[in-house]
Every structure is written in C-alpha cells, then in structure tokens.
Write a structure and sequence with these properties.
Helix content: 25-40%
Number of helices: 18
Radius of gyration: 24 Å
CATH superfamily of the largest domain: Alkaline Phosphatase, subunit A
Strand content: 15-25%
Pfam families: Phosphodiest
Number of strands: 20
Distance between the termini: 7 Å
Shape: globular
Organism: Moorena producens PAL-8-15-08-1
Largest sheet: 9 strands, mixed
Protein name: Nucleotide pyrophosphatase
InterPro entries: Alkaline_phosphatase_core_sf, Phosphodiest/P_Trfase
C-alpha cells in the first residue's frame, strides 16, 4: 500500500552535535520529530567519507559495486588528473527512478543526474553544496520558473571561505541563511502542487555550515579559543536553527499521513584531513622520492621550537600563502615568492616559475592550463609524478597514494616485484608520522586497495593506498623521523568529514523510542522505498531499517 514520504537530508550534519543541540532545546522541530518517532545513527564508509556518501545513498550500492570513489579521476596510462564530476548512474539508477507507478519530486539533490525514469519533477544544482552537475530540471522549464518566482541560491558554487578569513566567513552566514529561507519556500510551493509519493530535498547549507563555522562553534577546534571571541553568538548553531525552522515550515505543507525521514548520510568534525591530504602527504612522498630535498613548508630541524598556530594569513588567500613557502635555490626568487604583495606577485609569477627544469607547477599556471583543482597542493606536484616512486593524488578527505608502477604508468619506476615491499615501506614510515604539537600519531588506518600489482579491476579506486587520518586533533604541522618536519601551515577549512550520519523517522506505524541499533547509510534508500510501499531492488547492498510494525511491512 502506498504511503507518501517526505525525505529531508541535512548534508554532512554531524550526529553528535545534532544530538547535543536537540537535547539543549535548540532544534525544536527535529527534537519533536525524534521524540514522537525514532532516531538512530548510521555508519558510512570511513575510507571514502567525502566523495561517496551521496552516490551510496542514491544507488543503494557500495563503491565496490558502482566503482565510483571520487569526483576526481586519474587517467590510467597517463599522468593526467581530471574532474569527472558525479556518477553517471548508467549501471545503477537513483533509487527514486521508479517509472510511471510513483509520483516523485526531487529538489536540489546533490551529485544526482536527471533521469528520464522519474515520473514527476527533478531540479538539480539550485543551491546544493558541490552538486557536481550543471543546473537543470525536468521539466526543462521548471528550473527558471522557480528562480523567477523565488530567486537564485546566492551560495551556489560560492559557499566556502578560508577559516582564517573572518570577514568572508561571516559574509557567508547571510548567504546561507538566505538560501535556507528560499529553499523552504520552494519546497512548500512544490509540496502544494500535488500529492507526491516521494518528496526529497537536501539542505546543502548544513554542509557549508560545518566546513566554514566549526572553529567558531566547537571548542575542540584549535582556532576556537582565538577566533570565537571575535564574533557574536554561534554562527553554526544559528544556521542549523534556521534549517530546523525551515523543516517545520516544509512539513506544515506535507500530507498529514506522510512518513517523515530526516537524515544525514555522513557527518563532520574538526578538520583533520584537508591539510594532511593535500599538503603533508604530497610533501612527504616528494621527500621520500628525493631524499635530502624539500619542496613546500620546510619546518626546519626536528626538535627546534615551533612557530605559534597561525590565526591570520599574510596574504589574502590560502594558495598564495602556501606557494610562498616553496623552496627555491635562488634566494632572490625565494624572497620574492614569499614577500611580494599579491597583485604584483601575479605579474612577476610567470618569470619566477619559468625554469625549464621539471618542478612543481604553480596554482596560477594550473588555473590557466588545466581543469584540475589548483587550490590542492597535491596537484602542484603533477610534473614530478613520473620521477617519483609514489605520489599523492588530490582528494577532498582521506589521503590517496598512487604507486608509480612499471607496466601501468607510462614511466613507471617500481617493478611489480617490488610493489608490495614499497607499499609496506610507506605504511611503516607513515605510521611514524606525528602531529608536532601534541605528539598524536597522524594515521588511524591505511587501506591497501589491491591484492597485488597485477590487480586491474576497473572498479577499483585510483589510489593503491588510502590513508585514514586520526580525528583527534586538527594539526597544522607534522614530524617524521624519515623526512623531517612539514609546516606549520595555515588551516584551510575548519570542518572535515566523518563517516557517521543519522536518521529521524516519524509517521504512521512508526513507534516512538524504538532502538534502531547501528544502521548503515546503505539502508536509507531501501528504508524510504519500504515506507513508500515501493519495490526494493534485489541488488541493493542495504536493508530497510526496522521502523514499521511487521503487519504494516507485510501489508
């Protein structure tokens, strides 16, 4: 029997923080839904916490099955790195592509693609965080009709700032609040157009709030003590309160007999990943391949006094600051790269970095010459990858290591017979890497993605090793007995991903206070389909969570 479902995602909302704010009475709508229904935490894949959660949700399949691990791709047989964007959904469709039997409305689902198998309406990339697709809709005219009536989302592709830039960060607060309010109005509009079997939207603003305001909200962040007194209130909490109120307004227009699912497919915490993955790992592997040399962020001898944590940057954007730490044997170029004001630097930079010798490529040249992500220092090492035994692939969360393997890479240096030995060597040396301020070991886990050098399964991830960083402390400087000290460098984003999400479910037949145990994000799609009374594909890797009484499930 069909039942309408209203599913509302909070992109990357951290369950421990949501739980705290609900208990303190800050999120009244979600607390009421939880108290009258049920709540549980959902685990997700820890080794790919940023790139895979929404694809996992949409397909009901693990990355091993879809072969989708990241929006960024390494083109095998080359040293090219490129942006491939969202999963194509050719093999596994979005779970809501149910054909003519169900009316479905999808508004601003991130990292989805328009599907002709959906009977209803779809609007994508209106204001989602990192939508990974172009803005559009089915029907085609709907997107512009909604924009004309309700307005654009001012944060589309503009919902980020460097955490040390308080002025830009606080400007972002107003942008996100405007987007939240407009999202609520659009969803109310769409809900009143007809009775949908499924209505799905996702608050991408939750994702941006975690990335950009963690240092102003959560005391465990190392910048909290210095930066939070400079602002009034708690911008992250205020943003989530706006979301909570918006959920209440949306549900006021929902059918009274609807099942309501509020969920997050993954979470957020202090940023323990960005700088280690983009900077420390890339520089570690450079020094490993070229003993005695360093490229970026040389921190001097081990044991020497550390500089204080940076609470402001010398220059107005993060890449400029970090590129200023690049080593150059020429002291004049080294001085100019470090000290020249930005506007003048952009004029002289082509001369500074015009050496014919193979070297790091500057983010300024990358911006002009390629479509890779220039703000990721790992991409600056690309010209040197053919000369390195192993190199760091750009990533948004975990650290990715690619072995420069003979027979696979065009200028491979590592014979297949030495593949396992090199992996083991890197694993051993990386486990010795520590945060230089607290002495915290930097590595939580290292996953070897291939059983052997000959494993060429096309659905495997690009890296040979995946580094899961510790999540205890957001570090800005690391030390290794093998390659020395790297940093300090400025923090980039304040929050980074965690692998846990949550679900709140409320509606007919859902008992209050049911203990869901520990579910998985893979269970979200089959749970929503079961609540709808829709068929669940056999290929799904998850199962419906035990929300409904058995007689309702069977009925």
């Amino acid at each position: 029997m069909k039942k309408p479902v209203i599913a509302i995602g909070l992109d990357a909302a951290e369950p421990s923080v949501i739980e705290k704010w609900m208990s303190q009475g800050h999120l009244q709508t979600m607390r009421r839904l939880r108290d009258q229904g049920t709540y549980g935490r959902l685990k997700n894949f820890e080794a790919f916490s940023a790139e895979t959660p929404w694809t996992t949700f949409l397909t009901g399949c693990s990355p091993e099955k879809t072969g989708f691990w990241s929006f960024l791709g390494f083109r095998e047989g080359t040293y090219d790195f490129y942006t491939k964007a969202a999963y194509d959904y050719n093999e596994y469709s979005p779970f809501y592509a149910l054909g003519e039997d169900y009316r479905v409305a999808v508004f601003d689902m991130p990292q989805a693609r328009l599907s002709d198998k959906v009977n209803g309406l779809q609007v994508l990339a209106w204001g989602a965080h990192s939508p990974q697709v172009d803005s559009g809709s089915l029907p085609t005219s709907l997107f512009q009709e909604l924009v004309d009536k309700h307005g654009e989302h001012p944060g589309l592709h503009n919902d980020y700032s460097v955490c040390l830039d308080l002025k830009a960060t606080l400007r972002l607060q107003k942008i996100l609040e405007t987007g939240i309010a407009r999202r609520a109005t659009i969803c109310q509009d769409l809900l009143q157009q007809e009775s949908w079997d499924l209505f799905l939207t996702v608050f991408g603003e939750a994702h941006a709030l975690g990335h950009n305001f963690w240092q102003l909200s959560q005391p465990e962040h190392p910048l909290y003590e210095d930066l939070s007194p400079r602002v009034s209130g708690d911008p992250m909490l205020e943003g989530f309160q706006a979301i909570d109120r918006a959920i209440g307004k949306i549900l006021a227009k929902a059918p009274k007999d609807a099942h309501v699912v509020i969920f997050s497919a993954h979470g957020m915490g202090p940023n323990t990943m960005d700088v280690p993955s983009t900077t420390f790992l890339a520089e570690f592997l450079y020094r490993h391949s070229f003993p005695g040399k360093f490229a970026l962020a040389n921190g001097g001898e081990l044991g020497t006094p550390l500089e204080p944590i940076m609470t402001k940057m010398k220059w107005n954007y993060w890449e400029r600051h970090l590129w200023g730490t690049k080593y150059d044997p020429n002291p004049i170029r080294r001085f100019l790269r470090r000290e020249t004001p930005t506007k003048l630097f952009e004029l002289i930079e082509p001369w500074l970095d015009s050496s014919k010798e193979t070297d790091l490529i500057s983010p300024f040249r990358l911006t002009k010459e390629t479509d890779v992500v220039p703000y990721q220092p790992a991409s600056w090492y690309m010209p040197l990858w053919p000369k390195m035994k192993a190199f760091a692939l750009p990533s948004f969360a975990e650290g990715y290591i690619r072995i420069n393997l003979q027979g696979r890479e065009p200028q491979g240096l590592v014979p297949p017979s030495e593949y396992d030995a090199l992996c083991d060597e890197l694993i051993q040396k990386l486990y010795a890497l520590k945060d230089a301020r607290k002495g915290v070991p930097m590595i939580k886990d290292i996953i070897k993605t291939r059983k052997s050098a000959s494993d060429r399964n096309p659905k495997l991830s690009d890296p040979d090793l995946v580094i899961v960083w510790q999540d205890e402390y957001a570090t800005d400087v690391v030390e290794s007995p093998d390659v020395g000290r790297i940093g300090p460098v400025p923090h980039y984003r304040a929050g980074s991903h965690r692998s846990e999400g949550f679900i709140i479910a409320n509606g007919p037949g859902i008992a209050s206070g049911v203990d869901l145990g520990r579910g998985h994000a893979l269970d979200l799609a089959p749970t929503i389909l079961q609540l709808m009374g829709a068929p669940i594909p056999e290929y799904f890797d998850g199962n419906p969570l035990p929300l409904l009484a058995k007689e309702l499930v069977n009925g």
